[in-house]
Amino acid sequence: MPTLAKAIAQGRRIEAHRPWPRIVADDPLWQALASRLADGRCSLLGLWGDVGAVHMALLDETENFVAIVTNECPDGRYPSVGRFHPPALRFERAARDLFGLAPIALPDTRPWLDHGEWGVSHPLGAVAPAMAPTAPTYSFLAAEGEGLHQIPVGPVHAGIIEPGHFRFTASGETIVRLEERLGYAHKGVEQLMIGKSIVEAARLAGRISGDSTVAYAYAFARAVEAAVGLEPPSRAIWLRALMAELERLANHLGDIGAICNDASFALIQAHCAILRERVLRAAAICFGHRLMMDCIVPGGVGVDLSAQGAGEIRALIDLVARTFPNLVSLYDNTASLQDRTVGTGRLSIALAQQYACGGYVGRASGRSFDIRKDLAYQPYDALTFDTPTLLEGDVNARVWIRIREVEQSLSLIGSIVDRLPAGTLKAETIPTAGEGIAIVEGFRGDVLAWLRLDQRGRIARCHMRDPSWLQWPLLEAAIEGNIVADFPLCNKSFNCSYSGHDL
Amino acid sequence: MRKTLFENLLKPPLTEPGPRADEPEIAELAAKLGDAARARLGRSLSIRQVDAGSCNACELEIHALSNAFYDLERFGLRFVASPRHADVLLVTGPVTKNMREALLRTYDATPSPKWVVAAGVCALDGGVFFGSYACVGGVSAVIPVDLHIPGCPPTPMALLSGLLALLSASAGGGGPDVGSAPSGGSGVRL
Known about the structure:
The complex is a heterodimer of chains A (503) and B (190). With 503 residues, chain A is α+β, with helices and mostly antiparallel strands. Chain A has helices at 4-7, 27-38, 89-99, 189-193, 198-205, 213-228, 234-262, 266-287, 307-332, 335-341, 349-354, 359-363, 371-374, 395-419, 472-479, 487-494, 498-502; strands at 12-14, 17-18, 22-24, 43-50, 53-60, 65-72, 77-79, 102-104, 148-153, 165-171, 174-181, 296-297, 300-301, 434-441, 446-453, 459-465.
């Protein structure tokens, strides 16, 4: 059986693309790759539109090989991948809304990001629209049976969370079907990116999903560096990882607390919120911003870590390492809490694999893929850490993955601070044309950045794919058969990004 | 659990600075906010947060207001689950066109008197998302705004200070909106 690398060899290679190959595939090759996806012989990392073309990123997990495949379609029509491989469905619907690209035989032709409010159709497309204008009403999938009722929730929710609509069909208390409708946070980021300098675009990238601002800035910077062939100084490389691990630590601490709180166990939430606040305060002292926004820039980092800052971080990890185990044993020994989390919102291993689902959602369902290891980038190739994996796939497993990742991040932060090399912070970027891709492990999973720079070094096209794209659809599956009252708990255990998904 | 609870009985509180005297700014804030809130609304002010398409950074910092360091509720400020229970709408984000209708309906569902606080740079004018086909570009383009709290995102302390400023201003006579139609709105909405 040929590997992905061999399969794409028939396509025309685009030389300007780095570090992984991009090839142009004709319809037969494109369809062959779609069936390869459907057979589970490779995974879909993303699919996005371009003017007169559609791209998809494929991953061969057996040989850790990534390839970008392009189908050029000047008439705006290309063979649907989602027809064979459901994880592509929402990507294709989104690319259709934004570019007017029409996937041939797309099974679900409802709009996705376009709610009929923009005043324009296909805002990024230069091709003539190949389909009817967006309908103003959205028809949810039907669920039929005696005594079923629907519960619409959102986009404004009861808690302090992002906007999204959930349509439950329930039989009594049990959820028969959940259907998500997203796009409320769509801000038009991909269009705003076009024509921006890389400095301006980096600020925008850092605001696609605020909780992952470091991961986004990190992925964007590495994609720019890949495109122009630039190597950041080693101190910057290590500082980036330090920030990324601090972000992971802060978010996991917040999530563990919030999940327990959604199971009405406020004590752990109170303590986790304190630890999270301490991480953010340390970040503010070290890097000047609590969430470390705009600290990673193309070419390096914008701020240095002082000796005092290093001391702050050492004190922080000592404190967390001392107090966190008490919270873990409290979680582990509270039967009433376990009663809510064990067996709730179970995601099957097969679905996690099919959707190439990253982060704690994938790892709690047996998919151990971790970009830091499997497509290792500096400095993680020189660091030792474990990627925890469980098979149960329930809320409890997603809590435990986070607990183990907190421990791993603490150890990583300690090593990074100890081994931080001296030197400059930033290499100057030279404006030049090129194409680059980078994938970075954010707290939620793998953040993908792909971009093309024009001759002046400005953004010609930039697509950033949040890990939530491949996790949101699985929440619909995980919730089935659970009670409506457990939805907040399940949703929090996934903690998908609305803004990162909606762009 | 008993051990954790017991240990915490023996530890001093983390909350700043209610009991701590070394940060007069927050002590003053606590006292002033208490007086102003009482004068206007008895002892409490209920806040309904609406994310009108933010990047979620503002939400993270609004969440932080409830942690032990800031302990929002000691000021009589609390978050409520429905606009129908709210005195204040705390709105974040550049107001995406896809959220415009939901924001208007939330505003209309909030009983008067009510205040609107726009938090973050995006909520002022769209911030980095200014000029997008998908954004209205600022909360005031959809509903009247009483106060804007700057920052990207605003720190929890900035959010607290902003809410105090709102109370001081309203106690000084610049009353809240008492039911006028939202600017740009089209009257009653179901």
